[in-house]
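Aggregate trends can hide what the representation actually does to any particular protein. For completeness, the protein is quoted in full, as a sequence line and a line of structure tokens.
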Amino acid sequence: MDFNCDFQPRQIVYLENDNQRLYAEVIQVVESRRMCWVRPLVLVTYSGDVTSEQPPVATDLRFAADLLWHSILFRPALDTEVIPFLVEPLATEPAAETHSASVAQLNQFIRRVWQMSEDYPRTELDSG
């Protein structure tokens, strides 16, 4: 994967795995470690693939813990793709009753991305 990371603080990026995307805000890029410190915003689950006609399900993650993750695995998000998922959740406060279920979904997603990243050569993750 030859993707040169040039992310800026407050930029929206995403991690993708199968039919899910985790959209997050860049807090800081740790260039010396080729890592991104990000704040999760929303986990979007598509019924098929990302191009499916079915409406996706968005899980509000604004209350979730920040992540430190390999920069090379993130992609920049286009405004037009992420704004629809942010408009509705940002208009309301995060629901406390869905907090644990949302965190569980995030944890499962992160585990799958971690397993997927194990398939990348270490030199690719370390060299960015």
